[in-house]
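User: Predict the complex with uridine-5'-diphosphate.
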Amino acid sequence: MTESSIRKNERTGGSASKFDYLIVGAGFAGSVLAERLASVGRRVLIVDRRPHIGGNAYDRYDDAGILIHPYGPHIFHTNSAEVFAYLSRFTEWRPYQHRVLASVDGQELPIPINLDTVNRLYGLNLTAFQVEEFFASVAEPVEKVRTSEDVVVGKVGRDLYNKFFRGYTRKQWGLDPSELDASVTARVPTRTNRDDRYFADTYQAMPLHGYTRMFEAMLAHPNIKVMLNTDYREILHLIPHDHLIYTGPVDAFFEYQYGRLPYRSLEFRHETHDMPQFQPVGTVNFPNDYAYTRISEFKHITGQRHERTSVVYEYPQAEGDPYYPVPRPENAELYKKYEALAQAQPDVTFVGRLATYRYYNMDQVVAQALTTFKKLQDQPVKEGEPLQV
Ligand code: FAD
Ligand code: UDP
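Assistant: Here is the predicted structure with uridine-5'-diphosphate placed in the model:
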């Protein structure tokens, strides 16, 4: 055995005294980094305070035997060939294109707003060209698009804004669209054709056997140890490690020293119904009625066949588990203060939706984690051994 292989054995075997990385959070950010670092010989301990891996993308079978997403519907979509290829190492896929209807004025109409939405809402028979003219005639002039109201009224005018966006946004965020960054409602495009898919990305697919199986495959490496039901603060000083990777809420890490960073929460109400299908598409949005924003039916999304069906209602909340950063200027300013603290911690890396306060989709978190890995790889670890590819 060469000296270097002995050292490698020590690093990967049970005899090593120290973890190279302690990773807080076993969602996409933490699990991608654990997998990448383990693949180059680093020893990793990943902890999560929840009783499962996968973070908010975790899925499981409910009592009826239906695969559900306990933290709300998660549909994978990306334009990144790199992200898709990376995740494809851990799962096969089932092609799936999400469709959403919005319940407005007694009808269920396609959202994103498209040609059919306008024709059915107003009883018209416009062509794609005519609907473009229609949008131009009702759009309000907006000098500089700053807010989530500007984005929508500047494209489709006040009536469509009021019917599809204003109520939904006020419910979802507890704020008027005029108080939120443009980027929030800009997630939902406007179309002049009849494309009724919710996303237009190149890759749209669901992990064939679910997200949890995919995460299990990512974490199934002898260099990775997983510890669940554990807040990292319980073990931080008990388990020696060289570097910390943190994927929880950034303000909590710094004990809220500049005050709380607003995160929006949700309550999920899960139901199983004695019927094979509850609604015509994966998600129905309720912009103007009820306390919930949307109902999602999992079998559409997963493709599972079952004589019963499970759905989830989402009720937005101010308090509770943090799910969404709230994009608006004052929050960005407060986040900057936490970001400065984060940057001053050479032994800690902050990554993920909550730790970098970015309204990221799953693929964006994967991309951010892959970029972070490349940066960490360029940094020598404390013991002086450079990471190998
Ligand atoms: P998380 O998944 O939140 O993981 C962070 C983990 O850290 C958590 O498991 C948490 O328990 C753990 N943690 C926090 N603090 C501590 C601590 N002190 N000690 C130990 N562990 C700790 N994205 C899409 O691409 N498509 C979708 O359709 C989609 N739908 C969504 C629907 C909803 C309702 C929500 C809320 C999000 C949705 N997303 C969707 C976004 C997606 O969930 C996130 O982009 C992704 O899961 C973020 O991964 P993450 O690792 O950054 O964070
Ligand atoms: N939105 C809306 N009406 C809709 C759908 C979305 O007003 O029918 C707005 C709302 O502010 C929402 C945002 O657009 O929070 C982003 O929607 P998305 O479906 O991307 O939200 P997510 O799936 O991340 O909860």
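The domain at 3-53+219-261+326-377 is CATH 3.40.50.720 (Rossmann fold).
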